[in-house]
Amino acid sequence: MTGLKAPSGSATAEHADVDGGPRRSGALAQLKDVGFWAEWAALAGLVVLVVVFQASNSTFLSSGNIEAMLTSSAILIVLGVGQTFVISTGGIDLSVASVMTFAAVVFGLVYKQNSNLILACIAALLAGLVFGAINGVLVARGKITDFIATLGTLSAASGVALIMSNGKPTTVINSTLLTLSSGGVGLFGWSFIIAAVIAVIADVVYFRTRFGTHVLATGGSAEAAGAAGVRTDRIKLGVYTIAGLLAGVAAILLVSRVGAAEPAANTAYLLNSVAAVVLGGVSLVGGRGSIFGPVVGGLLLTALTNGLTLLGVSQFYQPLSVGIVVVLAALFSRFQK
């Protein structure tokens, strides 16, 4: 009779299960889903870049170049993690690169005075934390738009750095600091290991603590989160402070890599930190995010610039390529679930 269906234990059902028909069709449907690729855009893009650049230049995947790329990506990963917390609340921190520069100058000047590496590191971390807290107070307590508040501190941090250093770089020569940028375990330099540890800690905070839950709730709907008892002003103060503290960490990594505290702000780190977050699938309107994604996004951007350099492409084209990648990632993010 046409109205009867085969029982679940029948040969027909078993045959369908053995063949994997429903499973296969489900997998194919997932692969055709734009949202699926949007979720994994950064990782898929990184794999494509590795294949293309290795095919174009066999030295791309050499041990020396892989180690160099991982070390180079450390600063961007640290800044991207801090930016992730801010953007997850629906905000943005335009001052991270300038705060990093300011913290680096503080590091250099403190080390120049007493040659105490630990004291210089603490000073750099405090410098970043203070500016991050200022951002948080301006946004959370002062009710100033995050764009304007951090744009102001961007200029302020850059200006203070130039005033304190008199516009001159401070050379920092320290064997331990040199080891931070040149030593490591296998292909993983100490700088990258530090960045990876920070990312793991951030992931635990982001997904396994009440603070992380409140961060996502604040980004999803500040009004609803506030009605549920979340102190959204404290959450915003916290995320900007975290971003500032991590900018201080990035400053230490930067000085160890360059060997000097440069007072000139590198705006590329600001743009790339936001780009890594966008590539990593973090929603720019808040409420949805990841730590793993921005880490992969930072690796992708580093691999992109490194591969173009190996191919002899002019540095003038590198910002263009980064911009195109970011716009494509932003378009893909519209389809994320």
Automatic annotation (TrEMBL):
<feature type="transmembrane region" description="Helical">
    <location>
        <begin position="68"/>
        <end position="87"/>
    </location>
</feature>
<feature type="transmembrane region" description="Helical">
    <location>
        <begin position="267"/>
        <end position="285"/>
    </location>
</feature>
<dbReference type="Pfam" id="PF02653">
    <property type="entry name" value="BPD_transp_2"/>
</dbReference>
<feature type="transmembrane region" description="Helical">
    <location>
        <begin position="34"/>
        <end position="56"/>
    </location>
</feature>
<feature type="transmembrane region" description="Helical">
    <location>
        <begin position="147"/>
        <end position="167"/>
    </location>
</feature>
<feature type="transmembrane region" description="Helical">
    <location>
        <begin position="94"/>
        <end position="111"/>
    </location>
</feature>
<feature type="transmembrane region" description="Helical">
    <location>
        <begin position="316"/>
        <end position="335"/>
    </location>
</feature>
<feature type="transmembrane region" description="Helical">
    <location>
        <begin position="117"/>
        <end position="140"/>
    </location>
</feature>
<protein>
    <submittedName>
        <fullName>ABC transporter permease</fullName>
    </submittedName>
</protein>
<keyword id="KW-0472">Membrane</keyword>
<keyword id="KW-0812">Transmembrane</keyword>
<dbReference type="InterPro" id="IPR001851">
    <property type="entry name" value="ABC_transp_permease"/>
</dbReference>
<feature type="transmembrane region" description="Helical">
    <location>
        <begin position="187"/>
        <end position="207"/>
    </location>
</feature>
<keyword id="KW-1003">Cell membrane</keyword>
<feature type="transmembrane region" description="Helical">
    <location>
        <begin position="237"/>
        <end position="255"/>
    </location>
</feature>
<keyword id="KW-1133">Transmembrane helix</keyword>
